[in-house]
């Protein structure tokens, strides 16, 4: 059995960074004082929720303190873990110590209890306002009474309207904040609720962008990968292949500073590697990745003549059957196939999540379609693999094929419509929203973000904490993450547009100041630095795009 002590990809990286100070970001690190964290009373529950959040903040502080106290020479794995661990002594992201493991488990267990208490309050409060179900051609309302039971609602199709008993007028569509209790279990699990929530957010985005330089009508539109025509899909993957064969822009191929960077595409991978500890478990996780994939989209156009938009991958469609997905069917209009199937492999144990997962449905090189073994090789990483093949230095040249091991274990547990809907409707505050998304809260140890990476299986480039952009699926996965963030923001725009919470280091280790919207974010070999506050709205600043 392979053993990895990690959180999401691996929070063993946090201990290594705190102990050694390795992996400095390109450019100046973001600075700031007090961050902004929006709060809004919701049905008289805010006082109770605030008390719970104070408990969580205290737990986070305790965790950070224990992280900082961890030994600089981390042991590979606690002796109590299952045997068979692969040595990772040469990895820059060494395995977390038993001290850190205990700290995380204490925090996780305590938060879980607080979250259950919070959910109990949120799910049992009676409401008398109506929940609007918005579609492209109209809207309707459904009664929203006490939750905690399967609610009865009338979902609207692509035409017409319907309603059940409601005490608010249809104008509530502009202000009502949907909650989980507005939908029954079937609507949530099937994706109907998520579509309604997305439609509500889209209607509010449309209303606030009716005039100005960037409007709902002239914005670029990102669509789901499978909604693109075959020609559009091929143009997209051809442009990526072009970027993978184009000289670097900001450095020289094979330079002493970046020996593994040989292409413009490699510059994106190297930048993510270099910034890893400053863009995960931080205040800027969502905004930084929003701009990172925007710059990738721009590079496809500027360098390779791509005129389309960056699609997103709605992995919830594929939950439990990702190996059968059209996205990975291996034809010329896909994102390439699964990896070649390798039999007889062992389970892998992820220590900090206390999760053992079975081998996926592939395990070898991508066999056909774009990015197959015959057409593409990756040059950087891995740095955080549990399989004993980590490079000694973060930018080492390590040419190899793209590996995938598509995993239904992760897709059916962490990337379902239930996961997405509960995340967006159950977490009104940015701190908990971004933490649960990444798997830093309670008993959800991966979140939709980490789960989407681990769908790639292990070993694979997609699951590596540092070098995951080596697999082009990274960009359509993060486009989905950005879509979820955009929906969450637009549901309550006035409160959520500029909502941030946290510092500039992974789980605040080492401790740094709370980030501010005036902070400057570094994009290394990808693009010029950007101001945090300019990256909060997909319809302003450097952006003019929306999702459908």
TrEMBL record:
Residue ranges of every copy of the Tyrosinase copper-binding domain listed in the record: 471-482
The UniProt record lists the keyword Metal-binding: yes
PROSITE patterns: TYROSINASE_2
A Pfam short name: Tyrosinase
Region annotation Disordered: where it falls in the sequence: 72-92, 132-167
Biased composition (Low complexity): 137-167
Signal peptide: 1-18
The keyword Chloroplast appears for this protein: no
MF GO annotations: metal ion binding; oxidoreductase activity
Keywords from the UniProt entry: Metal-binding, Oxidoreductase, Signal
Name of the protein: Tyrosinase copper-binding domain-containing protein
């Amino acid at each position: 059995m392979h053993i990895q002590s990690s959180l999401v990809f691996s929070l063993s990286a946090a201990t290594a960074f705190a102990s050694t100070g390795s992996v400095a970001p390109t450019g100046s690190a973001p600075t700031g004082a007090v961050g902004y964290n929006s709060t809004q009373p919701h049905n008289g529950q805010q006082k109770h929720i605030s008390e719970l959040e104070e408990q969580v903040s205290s737990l986070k502080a305790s965790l950070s303190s224990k992280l900082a106290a961890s030994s600089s020479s981390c042991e590979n794995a606690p002796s109590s873990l299952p045997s068979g661990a692969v040595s990772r002594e040469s990895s820059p992201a060494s395995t977390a110590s038993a001290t850190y493991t205990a700290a995380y488990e204490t925090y996780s267990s305590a938060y879980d209890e607080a979250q259950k208490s919070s959910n109990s309050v949120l799910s049992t409060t009676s409401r008398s306002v109506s929940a609007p179900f918005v579609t492209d051609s109209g809207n309707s309302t459904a009664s929203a009474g006490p939750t905690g039971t399967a609610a009865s609602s009338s979902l609207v199709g692509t035409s017409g309207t319907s309603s059940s008993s409601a005490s608010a007028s249809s104008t509530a569509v502009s202000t009502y904040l949907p909650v989980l209790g507005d939908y029954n279990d079937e609507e949530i699990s099937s994706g109907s609720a998520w579509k309604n929530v997305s439609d509500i957010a889209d209607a509010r985005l449309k209303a606030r962008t009716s005039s100005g330089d960037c409007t709902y009508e002239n914005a670029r539109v990102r669509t789901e990968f499978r909604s693109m025509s075959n020609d559009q899909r091929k143009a997209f993957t051809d442009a990526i292949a072009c970027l993978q064969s184009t000289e670097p822009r900001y450095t020289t191929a094979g330079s002493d500073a970046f020996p593994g960077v040989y292409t413009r595409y490699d510059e994106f991978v190297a930048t993510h590697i270099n910034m890893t500890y400053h863009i995960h478990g931080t205040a800027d996780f969502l905004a930084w990745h929003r701009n990172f994939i925007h710059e990738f989209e721009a590079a496809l156009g500027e360098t390779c003549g791509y005129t389309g938009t960056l699609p997103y991958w709605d992995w919830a469609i594929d939950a439990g059957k990702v190996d059968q997905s059209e996205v990975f069917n291996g034809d010329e209009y896909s994102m390439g196939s699964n990896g070649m199937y390798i039999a007889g492999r062992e389970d892998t144990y992820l220590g900090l999540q206390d999760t053992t997962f079975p081998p996926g449905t592939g395990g070898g090189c991508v066999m056909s379609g774009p990015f197959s073994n015959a057409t593409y090789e990756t040059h950087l990483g891995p740095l955080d693999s549990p399989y004993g093949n980590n490079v000694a230095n973060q930018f080492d040249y390590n040419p190899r094929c793209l590996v995938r091991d598509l995993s239904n274990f992760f897709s059916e547990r962490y990337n379902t419509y239930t996961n997405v809907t509960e995340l967006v409707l159950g977490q009104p505050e940015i701190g908990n929203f971004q933490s649960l998304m990444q798997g830093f809260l309670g008993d959800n140890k991966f979140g939709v973000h980490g789960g989407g990476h681990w769908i790639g299986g292990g070993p694979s480039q997609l699951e590596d904490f540092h070098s995951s952009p080596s697999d082009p699926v990274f960009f359509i996965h993060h486009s989905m993450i950005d879509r979820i963030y955009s929906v969450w923001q637009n549901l309550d725009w006035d409160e959520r547009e500029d909502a941030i919470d946290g510092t500039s280091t992974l789980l605040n280790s080492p401790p740094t100041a709370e980030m501010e919207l005036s902070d400057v974010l570094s994009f290394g070999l990808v693009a010029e630095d950007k101001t945090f506050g300019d990256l909060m709205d997909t319809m302003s600043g450097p952006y003019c795009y929306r999702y459908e």
